[in-house]
TrEMBL record, chains A, B:
<dbReference type="GO" id="GO:0017183">
    <property type="term" value="P:protein histidyl modification to diphthamide"/>
</dbReference>
<keyword id="KW-0949">S-adenosyl-L-methionine</keyword>
<dbReference type="GO" id="GO:0032259">
    <property type="term" value="P:methylation"/>
</dbReference>
<feature type="binding site">
    <location>
        <position position="248"/>
    </location>
    <ligand>
        <name>S-adenosyl-L-methionine</name>
    </ligand>
</feature>
<comment type="pathway">
    <text>Protein modification; peptidyl-diphthamide biosynthesis.</text>
</comment>
<comment type="function">
    <text>S-adenosyl-L-methionine-dependent methyltransferase that catalyzes four methylations of the modified target histidine residue in translation elongation factor 2 (EF-2), to form an intermediate called diphthine methyl ester. The four successive methylation reactions represent the second step of diphthamide biosynthesis.</text>
</comment>
<feature type="binding site">
    <location>
        <position position="9"/>
    </location>
    <ligand>
        <name>S-adenosyl-L-methionine</name>
    </ligand>
</feature>
<feature type="domain" description="Tetrapyrrole methylase">
    <location>
        <begin position="1"/>
        <end position="236"/>
    </location>
</feature>
<dbReference type="InterPro" id="IPR014776">
    <property type="entry name" value="4pyrrole_Mease_sub2"/>
</dbReference>
<feature type="binding site">
    <location>
        <position position="221"/>
    </location>
    <ligand>
        <name>S-adenosyl-L-methionine</name>
    </ligand>
</feature>
<feature type="binding site">
    <location>
        <position position="87"/>
    </location>
    <ligand>
        <name>S-adenosyl-L-methionine</name>
    </ligand>
</feature>
<comment type="similarity">
    <text>Belongs to the diphthine synthase family.</text>
</comment>
<dbReference type="InterPro" id="IPR035996">
    <property type="entry name" value="4pyrrol_Methylase_sf"/>
</dbReference>
<dbReference type="GO" id="GO:0141133">
    <property type="term" value="F:diphthine methyl ester synthase activity"/>
</dbReference>
<feature type="binding site">
    <location>
        <position position="163"/>
    </location>
    <ligand>
        <name>S-adenosyl-L-methionine</name>
    </ligand>
</feature>
<dbReference type="Pfam" id="PF00590">
    <property type="entry name" value="TP_methylase"/>
</dbReference>
<dbReference type="InterPro" id="IPR000878">
    <property type="entry name" value="4pyrrol_Mease"/>
</dbReference>
Length: 287, 287
């Protein structure tokens, strides 16, 4: 059996009891470690599980999936995924390959950022499609997220923005010299996300949002020290210090809001009076 | 401290290790039992936790929240919620009341149907807003869901439909005679949902979807015996036997699809050839 086990969002104790039992009994345990991270190290997990785990990077999952699945017709293999196995990153390819090999598959769900973000106080019913924000480079500044945000905003819905992480990226200079040296990991902050969003609005000028649009920055959602900072996009450009360590994510508000959402979220505002003023003029009873 | 603890979707072992530790230590434990249910009984939970729990019905949560919160400034109170505490049903009112009483609040996330539905193989990125379907009665057949589905379909997105449950509903005849007798619980099936959806399309005639629209019925998502049945809305009207026991939910597909989603989902189809034909003519490469 191939078990896809969600680890939840924060630390080693966020695994479910069902998931932990599977991890303890499986023949081999892999940890998918390139699309998200827990806030604890591999060593902490290994100690907690009482066994060693194999870190599965993108290369391994995409090119060597048959190694992961070896003998899973008769043995139990656990494939651990931060969040939920079918959440922000789905591992449908691995499941499809398992089906081809007649390997039974079972999944153990857990909290995903796509539902965990509800802890900010906005109702999940009022969210539209989720978008991703990648790190802009000198010559790659993709703005397709802007069209998706526009679709959500046009019908009044909130948008969850998931922020890029770069782990195990080869250093290009070394690569050119024939050596593989990995860059230190990078995690996008809310500040970077907000400023990239404003840059794209500046370029596209379709009034999808503005510096004064209300948004919520989130850090370490689901962790004991999760932090939410609410403010305008301009304010969130400078909120990284308040938010602290990774992982960050963000929500851009839509106009279809409920007064209870405001009561809850205002408490997180950088500037409560400004938040309330913008809420009343731009959001309240607008749809 | 008030702890909101998510229980996940299926049985007693879906609680996280972190959540279980809190339940074992708290002074009092409440189980919110009117917006969703686990697939196991209270007695199973109590045995598993090694302690008694208080069932909190709607009346208690909405009108007697101060009893739930009593002394939580100094004691730990655990409030258990099926799924995620901020998922399909949010308990923001309880948190806001706790804030007023200067009670610190902590939440333990878990799988929600709103992310767990990803196990059907559709990418959560391609979902629009979630809608709810209530049991139609002779004189109450609300169709506001139809407008939401239309918004999603217009931009090619999938729609998760959450199905009504009725627990602890008073029998109206007895009530008129001054006695409170509760009806047996009722859980909407995919068949009822699909036929109510077709009824509303028939009435509104805005071509939001049709009998041949593709959809997925889901039963006991997150459980060891979860079942998905894929088919047209007409086919899903008759799929209750294949789906089996509650809880059910449903997804209506949008046109913004990925070939990998089809590869995954087709396996669940009532009629694979028909599914493939409709997929190719109505969905594939349409957006």
């Amino acid at each position: 059996m191939l078990y896809l086990v969600g680890l939840g969002l924060s630390d080693e104790t966020d695994i479910t009891v069902k998931g932990l039992e599977i991890v303890k009994k499986a023949s081999r345990v892999y940890l998918e470690a390139y699309t998200s991270i827990l806030l604890v190290d591999q060593a902490v997990l290994e100690k907690y599980y009482g066994r060693s785990i194999v870190i599965a990077d993108r290369e391994m999952v995409e090119s060597q999936s048959d190694d992961i699945l070896a003998n899973a017709q008769t043995e139990d293999v656990a494939f651990l995924v931060v969040g939920d196995p079918f959440g922000a990153t789905t591992h449908t390819d691995l499941v499809l390959r398992a089906r081809e090999l007649s390997i039974p598959v079972s999944s153990v769900p857990n909290a995903s950022i796509m539902s965990g973000i509800g802890a900010c106080g906005l109702q999940l019913y009022n969210f539209g499609q989720t978008v991703s924000m990648v790190f802009f480079t000198d010559n790659w500044r993709p703005d397709s997220f802007y069209d998706r945000v526009k679709e959500n905003r046009d019908i009044g819905l909130h948008t969850l923005v998931l922020l890029d992480i770069k782990v195990k990226e080869p250093n290009l200079e070394s690569l050119a010299r024939g050596r593989i040296v990995y860059e230190p990991p990078r995690y996008m902050t809310v500040g970077t996300c907000a400023s990239q969003m404003l840059e794209v609005e500046e370029k596209r000028k379709e009034d999808v949002y503005s510096e004064d649009s209300l948004a919520i920055g989130a850090a370490r959602v689901g962790g004991r020290d999760q932090v939410f900072v609410a403010g305008t996009l301009r304010e969130l450009c400078d909120a990284d210090e308040r938010l602290g360590l990774p992982l960050h994510s963000m929500v851009l508000l839509g106009r279809r809001t409920h007064e209870l959402e405001n009561d809850f979220v205002r408490d997180f505002a950088v500037d409560k009076e400004k938040w309330q003023r913008l809420w009343e003029s731009e959001y309240q009873n607008k749809q």
